[in-house]
């Protein structure tokens, strides 16, 4: 029997209430060595919805799992039709004030690193360097047969050529770049194979139900060991891929600070959760530290 991935959680104990006090966040950054762990919530102000916040995509959309993707051609057709359409919109997203603030903190030597659970590349677009993409990136494609990697733009071109005139109107776009389409809208969308071996192509991202590569996990664990504190930005920490680093930091006695509007699965391990929009909060912190970033474009 297939196990479904954890998509939600219910608090089993009273969690500390959120605050609007940004002083602890500013204090942590002022000492340097802060490791950032970001989630979908940091990209909502760029027009990409999150999974679990108010109006989050999980209320209308079940993400593709690795088991479903590898289990049948129809599931792959449905995925690639929706992802191809979503990529057109996803690719137009631009960094917001939250991404820019993180890049500013890094430029001023306040961060030890950035781990993101997002697959949108917006931290890098804002100027952050050395970002660890915990769940991979939508701008790369990998073959499940021979392992060949290729740019997403190349696949997008091939899919355009194979599906001339494909332009349905999606009900919404999700954090994984997947557009909401009906089976009728998907129709007989044509999926293209690997140009090297003819194998199955998959976006170079970690699907729900798929494990993060062990070497990537260990690299992140090392970043936690080297950091003075952990700053979580816009993540509910529902899935273990991110929560484990919060637990690791807390167990090691490193302060965990969270900026997220809603309660998270990691609140019990945090010294504080700031319940403010990320763009507003991080811009205010940057100003308080005297390291204002570029204005939003």
Note the quaternary state here: single chain
CA distance, first residue to last residue? 49 Å
Largest sheet: 6 strands, parallel
- SS-based structural class? alpha/beta
Q: Describe the strand arrangement of the main beta sheet, using strand numbers.
A: 3-2-1-7-8-9
What share of residues is helical?
A: 25-40%
Low-confidence stretches: 1-5, 55-60
Q: What would the principal axes of the Cα set say about the shape?
A: elongated
Mean pLDDT: 89
Which radius of gyration do the C-alpha atoms yield?
A: 19 Å
Number of strands: 9
What share of residues are in beta strands? Answer: 5-15%
Q: What's the tally of helices?
A: 10
Strand and helix order: HEHHHEHEEEHHEHEHEEH
Features:
three-stranded antiparallel β-sheet; 297 residues; disordered N terminus; six-stranded parallel β-sheet; alpha/beta
Describe this entry's structure for a reader:
The protein has 297 residues and is of the alpha/beta class. It is 34% helix and 14% strand. It is built from 10 helices and 9 strands. It has helices at residues 23-31, 66-71, 73-90, 97-107, 122-125, 152-162, 183-186, 214-226, 240-251, 278-289, and strands at 34-38, 111-116, 132-133, 136-143, 149-151, 201-205, 229-233, 256-259, 272-274. A 6-stranded parallel sheet has the order 3-2-1-7-8-9, sandwiched between helices. The protein has a 3-stranded antiparallel sheet with strand order 5-4-6. α4 runs parallel beside α10 (278-289). The longest helix has 18 residues, at 73-90. The chain is elongated, with a radius of gyration of 19 Å. The relative contact order is 0.23.
């Amino acid at each position: 029997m297939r196990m479904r991935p954890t998509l939600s959680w219910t608090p089993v104990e009273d969690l500390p209430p959120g605050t609007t006090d940004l002083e602890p966040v500013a204090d942590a950054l002022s000492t340097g060595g802060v490791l950032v762990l970001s989630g979908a919530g940091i990209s909502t102000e760029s027009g990409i919805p999150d999974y679990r916040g108010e109006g989050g995509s999980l209320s209308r959309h079940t993400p593709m799992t690795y088991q479903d993707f590898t289990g049948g051609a129809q599931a792959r057709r449905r995925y690639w039709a929706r992802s191809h359409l979503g990529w057109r919109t996803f690719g137009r997203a631009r960094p917001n004030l939250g991404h820019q603030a993180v890049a500013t903190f890094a430029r001023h030597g306040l961060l030890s690193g950035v781990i993101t659970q997002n697959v949108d590349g917006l931290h890098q677009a804002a100027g952050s360097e050395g970002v660890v993409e915990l769940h991979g990136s939508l701008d790369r494609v990998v073959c499940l047969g021979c392992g060949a990697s290729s740019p997403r733009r190349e696949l997008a071109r091939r899919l355009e050529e194979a599906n001339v005139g494909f332009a349905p109107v999606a009900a919404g776009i999700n954090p994984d770049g997947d557009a909401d389409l009906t089976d009728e809208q998907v129709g007989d969308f044509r999926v293209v194979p690997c140009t090297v071996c003819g194998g199955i192509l998959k976006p170079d991202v970690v699907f729900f139900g798929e494990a993060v590569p062990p070497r990537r996990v260990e690299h992140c664990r090392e970043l936690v060991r080297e950091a003075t504190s952990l700053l979580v930005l816009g993540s509910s920490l529902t899935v273990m891929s991110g929560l484990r680093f919060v637990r690791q930091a807390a167990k090691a006695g490193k302060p965990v600070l969270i900026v997220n509007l809603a309660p998270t699965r990691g609140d019990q391990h945090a010294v504080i959760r700031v319940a403010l929009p990320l763009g507003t909060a991080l811009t205010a912190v940057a100003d308080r530290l005297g390291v204002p970033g570029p204005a939003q474009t």
